[in-house]
Design goal:
Elements (H helix, E strand, L loop, with lengths): L9 E10 L2 E11 L4 E5 L6 H9 L10 E6 L2 E3 L9 E4 L1 H9 L6 H10 L10 H13 L15 H13 L5 E5 L7 H13 L3 E5 L11 E6 L2 E7 L2 H21 L21 E12 L2 E12 L4 E4 L6 H9 L9 E4 L8 H5 L2 E4 L1 H6 L11 H6 L14 H13 L15 H13 L5 E5 L7 H16 L3 E5 L12 E5 L5 E5 L1
Parallel strand pairs: 3-8, 3-9, 6-7, 7-8, 13-17, 13-18, 15-16, 16-17
Antiparallel strand pairs: 1-2, 1-4, 4-5, 9-10, 11-12, 11-14, 18-19
Helix pairs in contact: 3-4, 3-5, 7-14, 12-13
């Protein structure tokens, strides 16, 4: 007599989710059983993040004929209340939340909140729980960072802290949304090792490189609809690789047909390479009283395009923020910007330079006025290098914003609010925001984070086109595959502020 399989830990039947005026998910039916390890695939805007939130109970299905059921500790429940401690969810939005609310907790405090599913420390850990926290800090190689403030860490280090936060409560299910974004090679390997040991999880991914080798099932979403949920066989994995290679081509080719944007600044080959746009001399940079860069000297000349590489925590993002003007060196360091004498307001420099970073994206999740929290207003705010606007946008600014929204195929999302678009779609909107002033210098911190393979290919062509049009680019990346042929120089930062500079 065959054994009856255990009930599904989570089951969805005919569930839909409506955000604002559009459907994020439509008629989803899905079951997650113990010891299943799912990879969740879908392009930007497919509904992956909403799907994971729906599973955990952080988002409710739109009323209709839906049914959501949980089975834990031998009991069924139609409500997530009382079972959410069994399900841990890690999303980019969770990480951004600390930036939005300025929750600059120490690493140990952040991990402790995972025991009680709290945002900020409200409950004291017992002696036994403190031992559990110590073990997870060591397991996740965070012991040396345990006293550091969360917001002083690099993007990748923060991700590792939040991974420890979700593991400390020993949940039955892990739900991971694009968790490999922003991780260097060492951290990616570490996370893969973690997933090899966990029994039941769902990992949302864009790249096949982000699919753990022990994945057992695949679920695919397209425009909010579930189009596949099945066992991940070797043959299906091979088919996915072939489909991925083919899917990249059409979007990359579409760039040739985008003629609505006129690049006013053409390449100036007559400029002498020795002419400096920005010079850094004897820079000592500190974050949370900790040295990030030491005795750092560097010059960005006209017509140079740089890639900055280094491990998580080496200082790549801090350097970009210094170039932009959001961070300032310690006394004795000097920054010289072409065309700006000492005492010139940094706001004038920021109208010549644009920065796109995970921190900027986190800041734009802040809920603003109802009519200024749309993608249209976010893109238009780039004219003023501001986060949000204090007055209505002009017709000229609106036209310019819509030109760049159309360039990135976002025109149909212009009136959607931040929380009604995917993480990748918001990332594209911030790239559009960066370009409304057609900056001389474009600073990109992990510019391909959150983008599906099609949009990664498209963005590489966009950046190459901007370089051809005369925009200088400095970009921080982790992976060799993200280096563009038009990059002329590379700066490698090692921990402790040591640098290696070479021309490509």
């Amino acid at each position: 007599m065959s054994k009856t399989p255990d009930p599904s830990l989570i089951s969805l039947s005919h569930c839909s989710v409506k955000l604002g005026e559009h459907w994020a998910l439509r008629d989803i039916s899905f079951e997650l059983r113990a010891n299943q390890r799912w990879v969740l695939l879908g392009n930007n805007g497919a509904g992956k993040s909403v799907f994971l939130k729906l599973l955990r109970g952080d988002m409710w299905p739109t009323p209709g004929k839906e049914l959501r059921r949980y089975y834990f500790d031998g009991e069924f429940s139609d409500q997530p209340l009382g079972v959410k401690q069994h399900i841990a969810l890690l999303t980019p939005e969770r990480q951004d939340k600390y930036v939005r609310h300025d929750w600059n907790l120490r690493v140990t405090q952040v991990v402790t909140t995972g025991l009680f599913d709290e945002n900020i420390p409200l409950t004291n850990a017992t002696a036994k729980q403190q031992q559990q926290i110590e073990r997870i800090l060591k397991r996740c190689k965070l012991w040396s960072l345990r006293s550091r403030h969360f917001l002083s860490l690099s993007y990748g280090q923060r991700r590792r802290v939040l991974l420890a936060r979700m593991l400390v409560s020993k949940p039955a299910i892990l739900l991971l949304d694009e968790v490999f974004n922003g991780l260097d090679a060492t951290q990616r390997t570490f996370l893969m090792h973690i997933l090899q040991r966990e029994k039941t999880w769902i990992v949302a991914a864009h790249s096949l490189n982000d699919i753990p080798t022990n994945a057992t099932h695949i679920v695919c979403l397209q425009q909010g609809k579930l189009i596949e949920a099945d066992v991940l066989t070797r043959a299906r994995s091979k088919q996915l690789k072939s489909q991925l290679a083919e899917s990249i081509k059409p979007v990359a080719m579409n760039l040739k047909n985008k003629t609505s944007i006129h690049f006013e600044r053409g390449p100036n080959k007559k400029q002498v390479k020795a002419e400096a746009l920005i010079t850094l001399s004897n820079i000592q940079l500190y974050r949370d009283y900790r040295p990030v860069l030491r005795e750092f000297d560097w010059t960005l000349h006209r017509n140079e395009h740089w890639a900055i590489i280094g491990t998580n925590g080496s200082g790549k993002s801090s350097l970009l923020m210094t170039l932009y003007g959001d961070l300032h060196p310690a006394l004795g360091g000097n920054i010289t910007r072409a065309g700006h004498s000492k005492g010139t307001p940094i706001s004038k420099w920021k109208k010549r330079v644009a920065l796109v970073s995970p921190e900027l994206q986190a800041a734009h999740f802040q809920v603003g006025q109802v009519d200024t929290n749309t993608l249209e207003y976010i893109v238009a705010s780039g004219r003023h290098a501001s986060i949000g606007l204090t007055e209505s946008i002009s017709n000229a600014e609106r036209r310019r914003a819509h030109q760049w929204l159309a360039f990135f195929n976002l025109q149909h999302l212009a009136q959607r609010k931040v929380r009604e678009v995917s993480y990748g779609q918001l990332h594209l909107a911030l790239l559009a925001r960066a370009m409304v002033n057609q900056p001389e210098l474009l600073l990109l911190d992990e510019p391909f984070t959150g983008l599906d393979p099609q949009w990664r290919a498209f963005m590489k062509e966009v950046i190459a086109r901007l370089i051809d049009a005369g925009t200088q680019v400095v970009m921080a990346v982790h992976q060799q595959e993200d280096l563009l042929p038009k990059i002329t120089n590379m700066l490698k930062i090692e921990r402790g502020g040591k640098v290696m500079i070479r021309e490509l």
